[in-house]
Amino acid sequence: MSTYKEITIFYFSGTGNARRIALWISEFANKKNIDCQLIDISKIDIRELEAFNTDRLIIIISPIHGFNFPKITIDFIRHLPKGKNKVVLMNTRAGMKIGSFVTPGLTGVAFLLSSLLLKTKGYRIAGQIPFDMPSNWISIHPALSQKTIKFLHKRNYYLTERVCDKIFSGGTVFTAYKDIIQDILISPISLVYYIAGRFAFAKSYYAGNNCDNCELCIKQCPVKAIEKISNRPFWTFKCESCMKCMSNCPQKAIETAHALFLVTGILTTSIGSYLLYKLFPDNLQFLFIKFIVLNITFFALLTILYKIQQLLLKNRFIRKIISHTSLTYYKFWGRYKSIPDNKWKKDS
Ligand SMILES: Cc1cc2nc3c(=O)[nH]c(=O)nc-3n(C[C@H](O)[C@H](O)[C@H](O)COP(=O)(O)O)c2cc1C
């Protein structure tokens, strides 16, 4: 017997993992005759949401970006109307597989912060559940093998089924508690990612040689972060690095500009050290001052160099050179996209 007659699942998803879990929950809910509504938070105007019936279960599911929920998910939670509903928080993290061992991702402050925000609005937290779906962060590592991706999908499908059984019958599931110490310990890094890291990653993408200007990346970007400059896609600081553009590009033309980061890093150390020496010769031992000066230098250089790169990309020859210095350009690196159920079910 299920306790709930109605469930609303709010999800955000870059490469489909969080959406996949949302679809599985709705499949299990339908089997129990629960009315399940699925809402993509990047497609709604949150200000138009009205308070929910109190007996409706709310599920929020989103990937983890930099040991926290991405800004779009946090903004959504911040703007939710007040309510007394039970809320289950879920995330999809970077699962990997080494031998037969699945290495879990890191949730960081995502659940702590959002639970706090929801509680101040009157909601009751009925679950905090991480799912170790395949890592999609292919700017920093090659795409996982199809075998691993299928394995992790299958594993999470059955985990979702078990979790749903418990939640639908009115129970609570707090599997995230077992990671609480590590989540608190990495919270300073989540702050650094939120105030600086995500803006740096926003400038790591460019459209390489294969771009045919179809503008799919611009049209599909969930946060409208991609503009057209010099007749090519240009990533603004609004980008959340969700990987949707890279994952969906039919030409696999979107790359990570590894060389740009290498050059910016090298210039930052030399120019930043010079500035520190000139501006604060007596305070060189202060870590905080060093951190601020180096960060300002890094972002100023990155902004300028990214613009220059955009202009240079117009030239076919230079575009080829830039592509060859991007690891994502090489076939072995691959792209990531969550796979439909029939693919992993067929092979298992
Ligand atoms: C920019 C970025 C940052 C990420 N940071 C983390 C992280 O801090 N911890 C983690 O476990 N996974 C991290 N990941 C991996 C994703 O959370 C994970 O692959 C997720 O399942 C993707 O879900 P989606 O397909 O719904 O977007 C990150 C991915 C990206 C693109």
From TrEMBL:
Pfam families: Fer4_9 (PF13187). InterPro entries: 4Fe4S_Fe-S-bd, 4Fe4S_Fe_S_CS, EFR1-like, Flavodoxin/NO_synth, Flavoprotein-like_sf. One of its GO terms (molecular function) is iron-sulfur cluster binding. Residues 202-231, 238-259 form the 4Fe-4S ferredoxin-type domain. Keywords: Iron, Iron-sulfur, Membrane, Metal-binding, Transmembrane, Transmembrane helix. The chain crosses the membrane at residues 98-118, 259-280, 286-306. It comes from the Bacteria. Residues 7-156 form the Flavodoxin-like domain. NCBIfam families: ferrodoxin_EFR1. This is 4Fe-4S binding protein. It comes from Dysgonomonas alginatilytica.
